[in-house]
Amino acid sequence: MPTQQIVAPPARAAMFLVFTVNEGSEDEVRDFLSDVPGLTRTVSFRATGPNPSKDILTVVGLGAEMWDRLFAADRPRYLHTFDPIYGDKHTAPSTPGDLLIHLRAPQMDLCFELARIMTDKLAGHVTVVDEVHGFTYFDNRDLLGFVDGTENPEGNDADEAVHDNADTELYNGGSYVIVQKYTHDMQSWNAISTEEQERVIGRTKLDDVELDDDVKPTNSHVALNDVSDEDGNDLDIFRTNMPFGSIGSEEFGTYFIGYAADPSITEQMLDNMFLGNPVGNYDRILDFSTAITGTLFYVPSVGLLEEIDSLATGSPAGQQNDAQANESAAAPSDEPAVTADGSLGIGSLK
Ligand code: HEM
After folding, report:
1. Matching PROSITE patterns, A to Z (predicted)?
2. 226 CA to middle of ligand 1, Å?
3. Domain-embedded: residue 6
4. What is the value of ipTM here, to two decimals?
5. pLDDT in tens, 119-158
6. Nearest C-alpha to atom 10 of ligand 1 is from which residue?
7. Domain ranges, residue 213
């Protein structure tokens, strides 16, 4: 299912669109959300014929304030507005965003076409507050020249890292995503030696090998982002960062996008980067990279997305916990219950 699929190999092209939703456009946006899987199929089918490509991926996320405007149902448990982080030297700002559309495809034309159709549908109801077109740079390198994405979890580990095993069945299988747009100061970066750059990242530049612990600085990017719980278990997120840029305006950037079952893991990494661990020992990548945006979104499962307008009513669908869901399965009621495939099993409400 190409809609709301998070874990995938690196795509050649990506688009990141962040919107705010105009007052009074809530109904139209709700309608749009349930159309997203169909719109994705449209472009996929046109591009590849009867075997629609599984490589055209759409993920839609919803901001916390938007959730409250669109739905009567409770917010998913970890959905909140992104908190800015003020380190001694560097800041992670929090910027507006009601809706995130993250598109990935083997070619930019497919992302662009899907983005065009989607924004057409939303015309008059939203404002695009950020738009980034990301490209693959050689062997999945960022514009600092380092391979980015190597230590992502794989297979089941990746699925577990991104999907929330929520106690509220409606939100089971959903995810949380934090996006940040960074620009790089290439002049300062290019002024330091390759060996120094490797100490900033914590890996070698040409062949992408992690530095040994005795030479890897504690303020390297890799050291500060390798986080674990109190029992020593690794805490993972899934990143699909993309380079972007503009030669004329000398903009060289990395669009950071990190999906997690629990966004506090990504927030812990950000605290390590911006405040430092211990405090003051901040991530040296920030001496060469400035965060310009920062927003947190909830990613509903595809089943919930297709039938999301059911959350708009005063119906307690979204507040239904497992016990209530079991009860409603035993004694039929008007309230929708979720089936094993994540669908609400209520068909279209239109
Ligand atoms: C690792 C680049 C921002 C989390 C890496 C690596 C590179 C990189 C080159 C090493 C290869 C890899 O494993 O992917 C960047 C750039 C960023 C950025 C250019 C923006 C300027 C972030 C942010 C977070 C993050 C904001 C988290 C909030 C991680 C994690 C790893 C990693 C978890 C793997 C650490 C490990 O080895 O266990 N990043 N990154 N990165 N990055 Fe970033």
Report:
1. DYP_PEROXIDASE
2. 9
3. no
4. 0.99
5. 999 999 999 999 999 999 999 999 999 999 999 999 999 9
6. 148
7. 13-311
